[in-house]
Amino acid sequence: MDDLVFYRNGTPVGLVAPSLLHAAALDGKYINGPKGIVALQGADEASLHEALVSAGALVPGSEDDIRQVKTALREPATSRTVSYLLCNADTCADVIRDLKSLHAARVVIAGCGGIGSMVAMLLAGSGIKKLTLIDPDVVEASNLNRQLFWTLKHVGQAKVVALQEALEARFEHLELEIDQANVTIDGLIATCSAHVQALVVTADNPGTLANESGRVCDECGIAVFSGGYIHDTLLSFSYIPNAHSYFHGKPLASKFSWERLPNAIMPSYGPVNVALAAEIAANVIRAISNSSLAVPEPAIKCWKIGQDPVTRALDGAK
Questions:
Q1: Can you point out the beta strands (E) in the chain?
Q2: Can you say whether residue 8 is alpha, beta or left, with left for phi > 0 and alpha for psi between -120 and 50 degrees?
Q3: Cis peptide before 206 (omega within 30 of 0)
Q4: Cα-flanking dihedrals φ and ψ of residue 88, to 5°?
């Protein structure tokens, strides 16, 4: 092995996961890989190869694929993402495909408040370069304690403009589109009708947006992830193309049409916003990086911080 490249009979056959750990104990040597801890049975090349494979720490690939992945591991913007993908990939070619998919994908984020703005940052940091940001609101003083990318100077400024500034201050080579329109399902269908790989809906006005966003999945054929609060409880919806049949153009059934109080103050709590944003962003990445990572199941997830989540598969999910 030389600089993470594993050789068999002098030929490079794979890349060792850079997260690999190793240890020496009284009874021998061990390696700790993505699939667990494995004891080395000998000091020869064959024993090391067997242990690496058993621990899930050897990702096979051609010499050219190994070279491309090593190059991405040296890049500050991609090194940690590539290391994560290598923990799950079957081959180096899977990692290369996923990096290209991330860089080429466009994700639409409808609602750029405490949850949506964090999703945008997490996606951009994971390698997604193309984002469309939609939100009609401006930054208010009440946002500053739970929406982490605004400062006092941004109060009164459009959220999408402030978020664009924050993203461009941190990441290079982004392609950002911003829109201060009100969010509607019909508008999102029009926006996502071409050249969009995923939609995130975290806008809370009207309150049925998260529920109804499955229409975009059905009509545009893209993955849709949405979520928000009911009191102090979090809800997330995952709609995956061709993986559910319950919808047929109608929102989830409800016998009530809920309305807010005239002076309603809807809950929003910084740590909980971050938790929901992480859930949604991870699902978006899984849907796009589907060579290395498992595509999310279509489901509704409901949970409170500190409690086990309740997950229900969408009716008709395969």
A1: 5-8, 11-16, 21-25, 28-33, 36-39, 58-60, 106-110, 130-134, 175-179, 198-201, 223-230, 233-239, 299-303, 310-313
A2: beta
A3: yes
A4: -120, -20
Full-model pTM: 0.90
Encoding tokens for residue 228?
């928000």
> Which residues, at least 6 apart from 131, have a Cβ–Cβ distance to it below 8 Å?
106, 107, 108, 109, 120, 123, 124, 167, 174, 175, 176, 177
Helix (H, G, I), strand (E, B) or coil at 297: coil
Q: What is the bridge-based pairing of β-strands 11-16 and 5-8? A: antiparallel
Q: What dihedral do alpha carbons 103, 106, 109, 110 form, nearest 10°? A: 180
Per-residue pLDDT reduced to its tens digit, 213-238: 889 999 999 999 998 888 999 889 99
What are the angstrom distances between the C-alpha of 133 and each of 119, 130, 289, 302? 11, 10, 21, 26
| Secondary structure (DSSP) of 3-23 | TTEEEETTEEEEEE-TT-EEE
Tokens matching residue 126: 């994971």
CB atoms within 10 A of CB 151: 10
Q: Which of 100, 73, 68, 97 is nearest to 84 (CA)?
A: 73
Domain boundaries, the chain: 5-77, 105-313
**Closest listed residue to residue 283, CA positions, set 267, 271, 266, 300:** 300
CATH no. of 105-313: 3.40.50.720
At 169-214, the pLDDT tens digits run 999 999 999 999 999 999 999 999 999 999 999 988 777 788 788 8
| Helices then strands, each counted (H, E), the chain | 10, 14
